[in-house]
Structure prediction request, 432 residues.
Amino acid sequence: MKWGPGRRKRNSLERILPRPWMTSPQRLSRKKAVLWVFLFLAGASWTQASFLHAAPKALAISTPSSSSSSSLSAPAPSGANGASPSFDRIADGKFVENRQSYQFHYTVDPILQASIEEVFRAHKPPYGAFVALSPRSGKILSLAEYSRDPSGNGGIWSRATYPAASVFKIITAACALEKGLLNYNSSVSFGGNQYRLGPSKISKTSKWEHQTQFDEALGKSNNVVFGRVTSHLVGSQTLREYSSAFGFNQPLPFDFPVDMSKAVIPEESYELARCGAGFGEVTLNPLHAALIAAAIGNQGVMMRPYLIETVQTLEGEVLYQAQSKVWTQPISARTAQDLTLMMRRTVDDGTASRTFQRYGKDLLKKVTISGKTGSLSGSNPPGLYDWFVGFAPAEDPQIAFSAMVVNSQRYKLRGAFVVQEALKVFFRDRPN
Prediction:
């Protein structure tokens, strides 16, 4: 059939509905009208290829340098008609939610979700979020959040007002590896305390330089090494290029709107060094953080994340079935393999090793874990932020994750602790 004036190819959503020019108004009325109303409320475009991947509107966010000291009082981005997904009802081992006259079946694992919510309730941080997904498919396995204030708005996992901190070192390392500037075990040097940055430490070397390797520098989150690598080798243009390739400064394709992670890459040498080491104007969404880790665990391929597995009528007719789709490939498989080795150092003998050795020794007998920590103070909401992102098993990833905890006066709950508790549940049937 040729497409004449006023006609166009039907998009994927329209394929589940009758054609209006072939169907009477009576046959169209209820099914199409109700679904159309829901899509309108959800903010999805009727003309897009898939209503489940409609791009969310960009939302204004506060960067780490912002003077704002507000808490999570502003409305969080949300799904249909102002409502985030609800994980209150379980049917046949899946979370199910009725929206209008339709039933949404979610991909979240109820057991994993409950275990993380219990960790947050037990430790009571001001705020916390945990996201887990399958690196190969993009299927969301957990989407948990917590606020000590019960009157606070939800959507903690969907915001991007959180400083990326040293998680951004992953992007810096990817630049150096992908461009052939360094190998994962290249020798690098730093002067003085590895965590204290200063202009002279970036611009000059001294006769008292300490030697280390690039993988150890990532594992121990060496600020001086990463500042020098960014300023002397990577440069602002490359860092900007790979920030975008990993999904910063662009909307994430997701079933519900989420805030956009933002990275402002400066030109000035010392400010650029600070940015590459994790102290720049870079904010990160927890879902995006998990996606970055998942891409490394999936040979450099970043899949589209999805939460809605099926949409059905109340009578059980399946109107939509999710399919795995590639979103982008920011790095090569070789670079992803090198980053995997580097991120293993974080757990083996780096910044997360103490947590895993103290609380997760039996877990480490089951699985290898690649990860990256990040710790920094922030203002929206105010507090001390602690990240842990990564994937496991390192050699054959089945789960990628990000944990973000906002503490008050000191680091009472670590992101690495939240993750190791989640992995204990996820790999509970795996033999030692």
Confidence is low (pLDDT under 50) at residues 1-82. Residues 53-426 form a domain with the Beta-lactamase fold (CATH 3.40.710.10). Residues 296 and 339 are 7 Å apart (CA to CA). Residues 223-245 form the longest helix (23 residues).
